[in-house]
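Quick one: C-alpha coordinates for this chain, please?
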Amino acid sequence: MTAARTTGKRVEMTTLRTETGEVFANPDGTKTLEQHAVPVRVRRGSSWVAPDTTLHKLPDGTIRPAATVTPIVLTGGGSTSLLTLGNPNAHIQLGWSGRLPTPVLAGDTATYPNVLPGVDLQVQVYADGGFSHLLVVRNRAAAVNPALTSLSYPMTATGLSLTRKPDGTTIAADSSGKVVFSSATPNMWDTPPAPTTADQKAAAAALGGLPAPRHAPVALTLSGGGLVKQAVKAGTAPSRNYAFQVSPDKTMLTNPAAHFPLYIDPSLSGGMIRWLHVSNGMGNQSGGTTIAATVARRLAMHGAAPATSIGRCSSSPP
Protein backbone atom coordinates (compact mmCIF):
# COMPACT_ATOMS: atom_id res chain seq x y z
CA MET A 1 0.00 0.00 0.00
CA THR A 2 2.88 2.36 0.80
CA ALA A 3 4.40 1.92 -2.67
CA ALA A 4 1.05 2.65 -4.31
CA ARG A 5 0.57 5.87 -2.35
CA THR A 6 4.16 6.99 -2.96
CA THR A 7 4.14 6.37 -6.72
CA GLY A 8 0.53 7.33 -7.33
CA LYS A 9 0.10 4.09 -9.31
CA ARG A 10 -1.44 0.78 -8.39
CA VAL A 11 1.01 -1.95 -7.34
CA GLU A 12 0.42 -5.70 -7.51
CA MET A 13 0.49 -7.56 -4.20
CA THR A 14 2.41 -10.53 -5.58
CA THR A 15 1.99 -12.71 -2.49
CA LEU A 16 -1.75 -12.87 -3.31
CA ARG A 17 -1.23 -13.89 -6.94
CA THR A 18 -2.97 -17.12 -8.05
CA GLU A 19 -3.38 -19.06 -11.29
CA THR A 20 -6.49 -17.05 -12.10
CA GLY A 21 -6.18 -13.73 -10.29
CA GLU A 22 -4.13 -10.76 -9.15
CA VAL A 23 -4.67 -8.25 -6.34
CA PHE A 24 -3.50 -4.65 -6.72
CA ALA A 25 -3.03 -2.00 -4.03
CA ASN A 26 -4.39 1.36 -5.16
CA PRO A 27 -3.08 4.83 -4.22
CA ASP A 28 -6.39 5.64 -2.45
CA GLY A 29 -6.02 2.75 -0.02
CA THR A 30 -8.38 0.34 -1.76
CA LYS A 31 -7.53 -2.92 -3.46
CA THR A 32 -8.58 -4.26 -6.86
CA LEU A 33 -9.02 -7.95 -7.59
CA GLU A 34 -8.75 -8.99 -11.23
CA GLN A 35 -10.13 -12.50 -11.71
CA HIS A 36 -9.85 -14.43 -14.99
CA ALA A 37 -12.25 -17.15 -16.09
CA VAL A 38 -9.34 -19.44 -17.05
CA PRO A 39 -5.80 -19.80 -15.68
CA VAL A 40 -3.37 -17.19 -16.96
CA ARG A 41 -0.29 -18.62 -15.21
CA VAL A 42 0.95 -21.91 -13.79
CA ARG A 43 3.11 -22.44 -10.73
CA ARG A 44 6.52 -24.00 -11.36
CA GLY A 45 8.43 -24.28 -8.10
CA SER A 46 8.69 -20.76 -6.71
CA SER A 47 8.05 -19.13 -10.10
CA TRP A 48 5.13 -18.62 -12.46
CA VAL A 49 5.07 -19.60 -16.14
CA ALA A 50 2.51 -19.03 -18.87
CA PRO A 51 0.01 -21.86 -19.43
CA ASP A 52 1.00 -24.06 -22.35
CA THR A 53 -1.27 -26.94 -23.33
CA THR A 54 0.96 -28.13 -26.17
CA LEU A 55 1.30 -31.90 -25.85
CA HIS A 56 4.72 -33.55 -25.90
CA LYS A 57 5.81 -37.18 -25.85
CA LEU A 58 8.33 -37.81 -23.09
CA PRO A 59 11.17 -40.38 -23.01
CA ASP A 60 9.06 -42.71 -20.84
CA GLY A 61 6.48 -42.88 -23.65
CA THR A 62 3.78 -40.85 -21.88
CA ILE A 63 2.30 -37.63 -23.24
CA ARG A 64 2.00 -34.48 -21.15
CA PRO A 65 1.17 -30.82 -21.72
CA ALA A 66 3.97 -28.31 -21.23
CA ALA A 67 2.34 -26.36 -18.38
CA THR A 68 -1.11 -26.85 -16.84
CA VAL A 69 -2.47 -26.17 -13.37
CA THR A 70 -3.44 -29.77 -12.59
CA PRO A 71 -1.17 -32.63 -13.76
CA ILE A 72 -2.55 -34.73 -16.60
CA VAL A 73 -0.80 -37.66 -18.30
CA LEU A 74 -1.97 -39.35 -21.52
CA THR A 75 -0.88 -42.71 -22.83
CA GLY A 76 1.53 -42.82 -25.75
CA GLY A 77 -0.26 -45.92 -27.05
CA GLY A 78 -0.12 -49.65 -26.42
CA SER A 79 -2.08 -49.39 -23.17
CA THR A 80 -5.70 -49.67 -22.08
CA SER A 81 -5.21 -46.70 -19.74
CA LEU A 82 -6.12 -43.50 -21.60
CA LEU A 83 -5.18 -40.81 -19.09
CA THR A 84 -4.59 -39.88 -15.46
CA LEU A 85 -5.74 -36.53 -14.07
CA GLY A 86 -4.86 -35.13 -10.66
CA ASN A 87 -2.29 -35.50 -7.93
CA PRO A 88 -0.89 -38.68 -6.29
CA ASN A 89 -3.53 -38.84 -3.53
CA ALA A 90 -6.47 -37.41 -5.49
CA HIS A 91 -6.75 -38.47 -9.13
CA ILE A 92 -8.80 -40.35 -11.68
CA GLN A 93 -7.57 -42.82 -14.26
CA LEU A 94 -9.74 -43.26 -17.36
CA GLY A 95 -9.35 -46.34 -19.52
CA TRP A 96 -10.52 -47.76 -22.85
CA SER A 97 -11.86 -51.22 -23.65
CA GLY A 98 -8.85 -52.21 -25.76
CA ARG A 99 -5.23 -51.29 -26.37
CA LEU A 100 -4.96 -47.78 -27.71
CA PRO A 101 -2.92 -46.93 -30.83
CA THR A 102 -0.14 -44.35 -30.93
CA PRO A 103 -1.83 -40.94 -30.99
CA VAL A 104 -1.33 -38.13 -33.46
CA LEU A 105 -0.49 -34.93 -31.59
CA ALA A 106 -1.63 -31.49 -32.78
CA GLY A 107 -1.19 -28.71 -30.25
CA ASP A 108 -3.44 -29.43 -27.26
CA THR A 109 -5.16 -32.44 -28.86
CA ALA A 110 -4.21 -36.11 -29.06
CA THR A 111 -6.08 -38.20 -31.62
CA TYR A 112 -6.06 -42.00 -31.24
CA PRO A 113 -7.06 -43.22 -34.71
CA ASN A 114 -9.40 -46.13 -35.41
CA VAL A 115 -10.11 -47.20 -31.86
CA LEU A 116 -13.06 -48.76 -33.68
CA PRO A 117 -13.21 -49.00 -37.49
CA GLY A 118 -13.78 -45.46 -38.75
CA VAL A 119 -13.89 -44.02 -35.21
CA ASP A 120 -11.18 -41.84 -33.68
CA LEU A 121 -10.83 -40.95 -30.01
CA GLN A 122 -9.75 -37.36 -29.33
CA VAL A 123 -8.54 -35.87 -26.06
CA GLN A 124 -8.11 -32.11 -25.75
CA VAL A 125 -6.24 -30.68 -22.74
CA TYR A 126 -7.09 -27.36 -21.08
CA ALA A 127 -4.92 -24.95 -19.11
CA ASP A 128 -6.54 -25.84 -15.78
CA GLY A 129 -5.43 -29.44 -16.36
CA GLY A 130 -8.92 -30.53 -17.30
CA PHE A 131 -9.73 -32.27 -20.56
CA SER A 132 -12.49 -33.07 -23.03
CA HIS A 133 -12.93 -36.37 -24.79
CA LEU A 134 -14.73 -37.06 -28.06
CA LEU A 135 -15.41 -40.05 -30.25
CA VAL A 136 -15.28 -38.89 -33.87
CA VAL A 137 -17.40 -41.12 -36.14
CA ARG A 138 -16.04 -40.41 -39.59
CA ASN A 139 -18.59 -42.08 -41.87
CA ARG A 140 -21.91 -43.89 -42.06
CA ALA A 141 -20.36 -47.36 -42.10
CA ALA A 142 -18.67 -46.60 -38.78
CA ALA A 143 -21.92 -45.28 -37.32
CA VAL A 144 -23.80 -48.55 -37.83
CA ASN A 145 -21.07 -50.69 -36.24
CA PRO A 146 -22.82 -52.65 -33.42
CA ALA A 147 -19.78 -52.05 -31.21
CA LEU A 148 -20.68 -48.34 -31.13
CA THR A 149 -24.12 -48.90 -29.60
CA SER A 150 -22.73 -49.60 -26.14
CA LEU A 151 -19.28 -48.62 -24.91
CA SER A 152 -17.71 -49.42 -21.56
CA TYR A 153 -15.08 -47.18 -19.97
CA PRO A 154 -13.22 -48.39 -16.86
CA MET A 155 -12.23 -45.71 -14.37
CA THR A 156 -10.24 -45.83 -11.16
CA ALA A 157 -10.59 -43.03 -8.62
CA THR A 158 -7.89 -42.65 -5.98
CA GLY A 159 -8.76 -40.61 -2.91
CA LEU A 160 -12.10 -39.74 -4.56
CA SER A 161 -15.63 -41.13 -4.83
CA LEU A 162 -17.69 -40.76 -8.03
CA THR A 163 -21.39 -39.95 -8.09
CA ARG A 164 -23.80 -39.68 -11.01
CA LYS A 165 -26.30 -36.88 -10.28
CA PRO A 166 -29.97 -36.79 -11.43
CA ASP A 167 -29.21 -33.96 -13.88
CA GLY A 168 -26.78 -36.22 -15.76
CA THR A 169 -23.54 -34.69 -14.49
CA THR A 170 -20.82 -36.68 -12.74
CA ILE A 171 -18.88 -35.43 -9.74
CA ALA A 172 -15.86 -36.70 -7.84
CA ALA A 173 -15.59 -35.79 -4.16
CA ASP A 174 -12.80 -36.28 -1.66
CA SER A 175 -13.17 -37.91 1.77
CA SER A 176 -14.56 -34.68 3.26
CA GLY A 177 -17.27 -34.46 0.58
CA LYS A 178 -15.65 -31.54 -1.25
CA VAL A 179 -16.26 -31.70 -5.01
CA VAL A 180 -12.91 -31.57 -6.80
CA PHE A 181 -13.90 -32.82 -10.25
CA SER A 182 -16.98 -32.32 -12.37
CA SER A 183 -18.15 -33.30 -15.83
CA ALA A 184 -21.16 -32.39 -17.93
CA THR A 185 -24.21 -34.14 -19.33
CA PRO A 186 -23.25 -36.41 -22.29
CA ASN A 187 -24.49 -35.60 -25.78
CA MET A 188 -23.75 -36.09 -29.48
CA TRP A 189 -24.07 -33.97 -32.63
CA ASP A 190 -23.37 -34.05 -36.34
CA THR A 191 -21.33 -31.73 -38.55
CA PRO A 192 -23.68 -29.06 -39.87
CA PRO A 193 -23.40 -28.20 -43.56
CA ALA A 194 -22.47 -24.67 -44.59
CA PRO A 195 -25.54 -22.36 -44.43
CA THR A 196 -27.03 -21.35 -47.77
CA THR A 197 -30.46 -19.79 -47.11
CA ALA A 198 -31.09 -16.55 -45.22
CA ASP A 199 -32.77 -18.43 -42.34
CA GLN A 200 -29.84 -20.81 -42.07
CA LYS A 201 -27.37 -17.94 -42.05
CA ALA A 202 -29.37 -16.14 -39.35
CA ALA A 203 -29.42 -19.27 -37.20
CA ALA A 204 -25.70 -19.70 -37.75
CA ALA A 205 -25.02 -16.09 -36.76
CA ALA A 206 -26.77 -16.74 -33.42
CA LEU A 207 -24.19 -19.47 -32.80
CA GLY A 208 -21.21 -17.31 -33.60
CA GLY A 209 -21.28 -17.99 -37.34
CA LEU A 210 -21.85 -21.73 -37.09
CA PRO A 211 -25.01 -23.44 -38.36
CA ALA A 212 -26.99 -25.41 -35.80
CA PRO A 213 -26.06 -29.11 -35.69
CA ARG A 214 -28.43 -31.97 -35.10
CA HIS A 215 -27.90 -33.25 -31.60
CA ALA A 216 -29.15 -35.98 -29.31
CA PRO A 217 -28.63 -37.15 -25.74
CA VAL A 218 -26.24 -39.96 -24.87
CA ALA A 219 -27.20 -42.42 -22.15
CA LEU A 220 -24.57 -42.98 -19.47
CA THR A 221 -24.66 -45.16 -16.38
CA LEU A 222 -22.13 -45.47 -13.58
CA SER A 223 -21.51 -48.70 -11.69
CA GLY A 224 -18.97 -50.07 -9.26
CA GLY A 225 -17.26 -48.13 -6.52
CA GLY A 226 -15.71 -51.05 -4.70
CA LEU A 227 -12.28 -50.65 -3.13
CA VAL A 228 -9.33 -51.95 -5.13
CA LYS A 229 -7.89 -54.99 -3.38
CA GLN A 230 -4.24 -54.10 -3.11
CA ALA A 231 -1.68 -53.39 -0.44
CA VAL A 232 -2.01 -49.76 0.62
CA LYS A 233 1.01 -47.96 2.04
CA ALA A 234 0.56 -45.80 5.11
CA GLY A 235 -0.48 -42.28 4.17
CA THR A 236 -1.75 -43.18 0.69
CA ALA A 237 -5.35 -42.77 -0.43
CA PRO A 238 -7.57 -45.76 -1.26
CA SER A 239 -8.67 -46.46 -4.85
CA ARG A 240 -12.09 -47.46 -6.15
CA ASN A 241 -12.97 -49.10 -9.46
CA TYR A 242 -15.87 -47.83 -11.54
CA ALA A 243 -17.33 -48.49 -14.98
CA PHE A 244 -19.14 -46.03 -17.25
CA GLN A 245 -21.55 -47.53 -19.79
CA VAL A 246 -22.10 -45.16 -22.72
CA SER A 247 -24.96 -45.66 -25.18
CA PRO A 248 -25.12 -43.21 -28.12
CA ASP A 249 -28.52 -42.38 -29.58
CA LYS A 250 -29.32 -45.10 -32.14
CA THR A 251 -31.72 -42.89 -34.08
CA MET A 252 -29.02 -40.33 -34.74
CA LEU A 253 -26.42 -42.97 -35.61
CA THR A 254 -28.72 -44.29 -38.34
CA ASN A 255 -30.30 -40.98 -39.40
CA PRO A 256 -29.89 -40.74 -43.21
CA ALA A 257 -29.95 -36.94 -42.96
CA ALA A 258 -27.04 -36.76 -40.51
CA HIS A 259 -23.83 -35.15 -41.76
CA PHE A 260 -20.45 -36.67 -40.94
CA PRO A 261 -18.37 -36.73 -38.95
CA LEU A 262 -20.58 -37.32 -35.93
CA TYR A 263 -19.20 -36.31 -32.54
CA ILE A 264 -20.02 -38.31 -29.43
CA ASP A 265 -19.18 -36.58 -26.17
CA PRO A 266 -19.57 -39.08 -23.30
CA SER A 267 -18.59 -36.25 -20.92
CA LEU A 268 -16.06 -38.50 -19.25
CA SER A 269 -14.17 -35.27 -19.02
CA GLY A 270 -13.98 -32.07 -17.08
CA GLY A 271 -11.52 -30.40 -14.75
CA MET A 272 -10.36 -30.15 -11.21
CA ILE A 273 -12.53 -27.60 -9.43
CA ARG A 274 -10.18 -24.78 -8.37
CA TRP A 275 -11.99 -21.54 -9.27
CA LEU A 276 -15.71 -22.21 -9.52
CA HIS A 277 -16.47 -18.97 -7.64
CA VAL A 278 -15.76 -17.16 -10.90
CA SER A 279 -18.96 -18.63 -12.37
CA ASN A 280 -21.27 -18.34 -9.35
CA GLY A 281 -23.39 -15.73 -11.11
CA MET A 282 -23.85 -17.88 -14.19
CA GLY A 283 -26.14 -20.53 -12.72
CA ASN A 284 -25.44 -24.25 -12.76
CA GLN A 285 -22.79 -24.28 -15.48
CA SER A 286 -19.76 -25.56 -13.59
CA GLY A 287 -19.94 -29.02 -15.10
CA GLY A 288 -19.69 -28.13 -18.76
CA THR A 289 -21.05 -26.17 -21.68
CA THR A 290 -24.11 -26.08 -23.91
CA ILE A 291 -24.19 -27.96 -27.19
CA ALA A 292 -23.62 -24.75 -29.13
CA ALA A 293 -20.69 -23.73 -26.97
CA THR A 294 -19.11 -27.16 -27.21
CA VAL A 295 -19.41 -27.24 -30.98
CA ALA A 296 -18.16 -23.67 -31.24
CA ARG A 297 -15.11 -24.45 -29.12
CA ARG A 298 -14.35 -27.53 -31.20
CA LEU A 299 -14.81 -25.95 -34.59
CA ALA A 300 -14.08 -22.26 -34.29
CA MET A 301 -12.94 -20.92 -30.94
CA HIS A 302 -9.49 -22.33 -30.25
CA GLY A 303 -7.26 -19.62 -28.94
CA ALA A 304 -10.06 -17.29 -27.82
CA ALA A 305 -8.99 -14.74 -25.23
CA PRO A 306 -10.07 -15.55 -21.65
CA ALA A 307 -12.90 -13.57 -20.17
CA THR A 308 -12.08 -11.38 -17.18
CA SER A 309 -14.18 -10.02 -14.34
CA ILE A 310 -12.85 -7.32 -12.01
CA GLY A 311 -14.00 -6.70 -8.47
CA ARG A 312 -13.05 -3.76 -6.29
CA CYS A 313 -12.99 -3.86 -2.52
CA SER A 314 -12.14 -1.06 -0.12
CA SER A 315 -9.73 -1.31 2.76
CA SER A 316 -8.49 1.05 5.41
CA PRO A 317 -5.02 2.48 4.77
CA PRO A 318 -2.43 1.05 7.18
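The chain has one domain: 49-277+285-290.
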